[in-house]
Design brief:
With about 375 residues, this protein is an alpha+beta fold. It is built from 13 helices and 12 strands. The longest helix has 27 residues, at about 190-215.
Amino acid sequence: MDSKEYLRQLNKHLSYLYGFARQMNELDFAISLAGEFRGAQDAGWATTITAREVFDEITAHFETQGNRSKAELRVILMLYCQLAEAGGIYESVKNVLGVITLKPYLLWPFKDLVRVKQAPNRVIGPNANATFRDLATTAKAVGLIKLSELFEGAFMDDLRNGISHADYVIWDDGVRLPGRNGGYAKKLSFPDVNEALTQGVGFFQVLAEHNRTSVHSFDPPKKIVGRFSANPPMPWTVYFDPKTGAFGITGSSPGSMTTPEYNRQVAINGFLGGKVLAFFSATQSEFAKQIEDHISAAGFEPNNVAMSEGQLSSLIEEIEIQSLWDERQPHTVIGDVLLASPWGFRWVYSKSDFDSLLGKPLVDFQIC
C-alpha cells in the first residue's frame, strides 16, 4: 500500500487499540500517554523533547518548496533516522499494548530489549528495528494482526540502517544502499524515498495526535476507581490543565477500594484472556465461520473458544449474574456467535454487528 493508505489504516487501527485499552484500565492507559517517564528528574532530561523538536524540524523541511540539494536531503534523512529511534515516544504505545495483556504500567517497557556488556561496562538500548519488531510482536499477541503489520512497516529498516551507518550514496537516480557489510545492494528512487519519509513521519504524527487527543480528554479532571500499575485498586484523579499543559494522576486514598463497575471490568478482562476479543461458539455453523472470517479480514485474531452447549449455557448464566453484557447493544435473542470485547459480551447477528463494536477513529487525521 502507498503511504496515504498506510496512514489511513494506521489511524483506524491505532484508534481501536486506544479504545480497547482505555476501557480495560483507564488509569494505566492514561499514564502510558506520557511516554518516557523516569520519576523525579530536573527539567530537560526527557528524550521526548528531542523527538518533538526533530518532528518539527523535518516537517519544516517538507514545507520548503523547490529542489533539494544533497546536503538538504542528507539532513532530512538523518532526521528521519532520529524519529525512527525515538523510543521514548514509542514507550507510550508499548505500555498501552501492555494494558491489554493485563500487565501493570512499566517505567521501562523496553527493558527486556536492553543489552548489558561487562567489559567494558556499558548499556546498549534497542535500536529502531528491535523496538518496532517488539511492538509488532506484542500487537500480534493481543490479537491486533493488522496493527502488527503496520508497526512493522512504520520505518524502512534498510534506509534507516544505511543512513545511520553511512552505508548509502545519494546519486542522480535516488539513494543507493550498497550493503557494504553483506546482503543485497538496493536502489531507492527519489519517489520511493519520499514515500518512506512520508510514512515514517506520518506514523510519528498519528501516534502523537492520538496521545494528545487522549490527554486532552481529561479536561475536566476525571475521578476513576481502579488499579494504577501494581498498586491495589483505589480512587485516583486524572487531569489535564490546558493553561499550563500539566497532565498527571493524583490520589489520596488511605487504602484499597473497589466499585461494582471496577469489579465488572475485571471480570470482563479475565474472559478476554490477554486479547482484545474472544469468540465463543458451541456450533461450527457456516454463519459462525463467516463471522470469524470477517473478524480476521478486519485485522483481528480473537481468542477462539469452542464450547459445548452446556458450557455455553453456563457461561451465559454467569454473564447474567455478573451483568457482563455489552450495554451498548440489546442481547435478548440468542445467536450462534457470542463475542467478548472490553465492553462486555454481545451476540453477533451479522457482520455489521461486529463493525458497530469498533466505532469511529479517535482522531480525524487529514491526509493530503
